[in-house]
Amino acid sequence: MAEPILVLEGLCKAYGALTVTDNLSMAVQAGSIHALIGPNGAGKTTLIGQVSGQIAPDAGRIRFAGRDVTDLPMHARCRRGLARSFQITTILPRFTALENVAVAAQAHDGHSFRFLRPAAAEARLNDAAMQALETVGLGDRAAIRAGALSHGEKRQLEIAIALVMKPTLLLLDEPMAGTGHEESERLVATLEALRGSLTILLVEHDMDAVFALADRISVLVYGRVIAEGAPDEIRADPEVRSAYLGEEGAP
Amino acid sequence: MTATLVAVQVLNGLQLGVLLFLVAAGLTLVFGVMDFINLAHGVQYMLGAYLAVSFYGLTGNFFAALVLALLAALAFGLLLEFLVFRHLYDRDHLDQVLATFGVILFLNEGVRIVWGAAPLSYPIPALLGGTIPLMEGFGYPIYRVAMILAGLATAVLLWVVVTRTRVGMLVRAGATNPRMVSALGVNIRRLFMIVFGFGAMLAGFAGVMAGPILSVEPGMGDGVLILAFVVIVIGGIGSIRGAFVAALLIGLVDTLGRSFMTDIFKAFLAPAAANQVGPAIASMLIYLLMAGVLFFRPSGLFPAAGR
Amino acid sequence: MSAPTAEPAGSTGVRWSVPLVLLVLLAAVPAVANAADMGFVTSLATRIMIYAIAAVSLDLILGYGAMVSFGHAAFVGIGAYAVGIASAHDQWNAAVTFPVAIVAAGAFALLTGAISLRTRGVYFIMITLAFGQMAYFTASSLSDYGGDDGLTMWGRSELFGTTPFEDDTAFYYVVLGCLAGCFLFARAVVGSRFGRVIAGVRENRLRMQAVGFNPYVYQLVAYAIAGMMAGLAGALLANHAEFVSPSYMAWQRSGELIIMVVLGGMGTLHGAILGAIAYLTLEEVLSHWTEHWRVIFGPLLILVVLYARGGLGRLIGRSGGDG
């Protein structure tokens, strides 16, 4: 088997006396959809933050696509093909939906020290952005200011921003949070269509979505992986049931 | 002689330092608790001095003038809070900068109309006149020593208030986590008013003390304001301890730099060049210090936790 | 397809019609002033346009980049001093002094920006303020060049032996040309890839990092560009007054530049020009009326901030709704 695209080795992170990531090691196989589940406060978002480079771990190493990226800042990891969506919607509110995506495309298309030519007239950026918007079903909302989109649409916009960067690893932090049933189904279909073309590390509370999509599931409790395996194994694992699934109701 | 000169300049530096601390303390508290940038804090220092001029004219007694000026400074600070500042707490920093800049323009000019543009003064109280002999035939003014002691006493008082009282606890909590304090059901508006009035009074106190040794004139608060900014940026915004350390540091570095920088440069430059470079570097010194501190610690020496 | 811009400004019509009308009106000033026998108006308008250049440069980083620089007057002053000091050494050629002024101001911006931009929010405001004061005190201590009192220049710059700056009307059009050039350049920048990154960082720094930009580098370059443009304004200011003084760098000047930008409406560029016209005209009118005009202007400013935020630009057809 090829080397996993993402390898975490002995990651530790504490805020004061509170240990959020406790000597955590795990690996994500290239091309898979790997779900990360766990109760609130298990340290899922902190872990995503460390992988993306927003948060520096206290100890441990992060290897991405065969290289140690532990000391790289977020923007540098992004340039190596690591994209993320945020749990709390993080968009550019006064930009249009199209511009939100086009500026992300711009980051991966040549350099941005161009001062005179209007960026809005660059067909290549706009086309790529439009395509990403259509992929997530926002094609007809391209000209709307992002701040004026509905909550669900903003979540979709986040996915479009991540997709336009053509990442090799996509980190999704609760992409379904606060979205309606219909929007969730559309998002599951969108991610299903991407299967195989890139690797996805998915943090999600919506168990229907997780078990529909994931090739592999890791269960995080108090900053530690207590179980990992295929969806069926996780479903059957008694420790997982008592620690986590029990409190949310087994699917 | 040189040792005496150094001693004198160190004392002068401490005296500038405590003055800066009194101004910076209010500034850093107001900022730490309310996230409010108050450019008008310098004119409150100026106003303290002008009020002392008038009250001295009325009473002929320094200490009576001091007490009256402090009360008036407190009242004026509360009035400003009521009229202008409280409408700005939930605005962005740019709005706060502009509106408090407007307050500066108004008060600097208002002072010129009421008291005239010429520098004013009032005498050092007889009780604190005279000098303390440092060396044979060389003394240091008692008044300046008294200023240093008064400043240190205020610092101790402030430290006790902030660390030992309920209001102080709220102030500290507010500097760390403002949302939590309002969630606790504390009357945040009243806390703001107390902190604000107290800060205005401290700045006024500094102005009253500075009056007899500096000239009282329009715009005298502007330079002090900028120095106080440098102090709280170096000390870490919201931190009383940081303000204290940084104020003394700035007072000493600035005073000693201006006194000795030219001589230091004469050691390895031609005298003419040293006379050029020395004063220029001396006047830049505290800003270079600030740049250096921020380069290594972007939130100052004692950053308030959680910010 | 033609996407709408990332700028907070209103419709395309306003974005071009207002500045166009402004420039046409400004171009007519000397003729009208001469006809009415009011030559001082031309001089006042020249000063206004010079400050408008500085205000446009500030709007570039303040309005589009949300960098509240409180030391902008230092760049103007450095540009002015470059020309003044050169004149003291008998160097009058604008082809030499103007580039030096622009590069010197840009270098100062690059150096101080490299430190200031490591900080955010109020720290940034106070640090830029402090660096501005540093420049001010340094200029005051230049005893060879007038120190506190400033330095009188015995004439205006030349250009390869010709003297386009000597005649007040000719100089007026030189300044107008510079203003138009700076405005067009700034407008191009805010619509460019670079400008989009700057505006994106204003909107959400984390998002821009997460798509692969290093905000620090872009902000620093923008800061240096603004510094250079302000340096040009300073070089023109020195020629206009035939005098340079530390007071050009006083922090009150920096405050006034912010007032101009906000008064005219941030993030529109032409608002900065409107703001410069409004502020300096108001100052002129009020100070004719009373020497204590600041007593009136101060409360006026407070009222504008409290009740009329958005500036003149909003009155002339900004779409509004955000800000």
Defining traits:
heterotrimer, A: alpha/beta, Rossmann fold, 10 strands, C: 323 residues, mainly alpha, two-stranded antiparallel sheet, 1% strand, disordered N terminus, disordered C terminus, transport (chain B), cell membrane (chain B), transmembrane helix (chain B), Branched-chain amino acid ABC transporter permease (chain B), amino-acid transport (chain B)
Structure description:
- The complex is a heterotrimer of chains A (251), B (307) and C (323).
- Chain A is 36% helix and 24% strand.
- Chain A folds into 2 domains: 1-81 and 168-175 and 195-251, P-loop containing nucleotide triphosphate hydrolases (Rossmann fold), CATH 3.40.50.300; 88-166, no CATH class.
- Chain A has helices spanning 44-52, 74-79, 97-107, 123-135, 151-164, 181-194, 207-213, 231-236, 238-248, and strands at 6-15, 18-28, 33-37, 59-64, 67-68, 82-85, 169-173, 199-203, 216-221, 224-229.
- Chain A has 251 residues and is α/β, with parallel strands linked by helices.
- Chain A starts with 5 loop residues before the first strand and ends with a helix.
- Chain A contains 9 helices and 10 strands.
- In chain A, the strands form 2 sheets. Chain A has a 6-stranded mixed β-sheet, sandwiched between helices.
- With 307 residues, chain B is an all-alpha fold.
- The longest helix of chain B is centred in the N-terminal third of the chain and has 33 residues, at 2-34.
- Chain B is globular.
- The model of chain B has no long low-confidence stretch (mean pLDDT 87).
- Chain C has 323 residues and is mainly α.
- Mean pLDDT of chain C is 88; it is low at 1-10 and 317-323.
- In chain C, α3 packs antiparallel against α4 (94-116) and α4 (94-116) runs antiparallel to α9.
- Chain C has a domain at 26-251.
- Chains in contact: A-C, B-C.
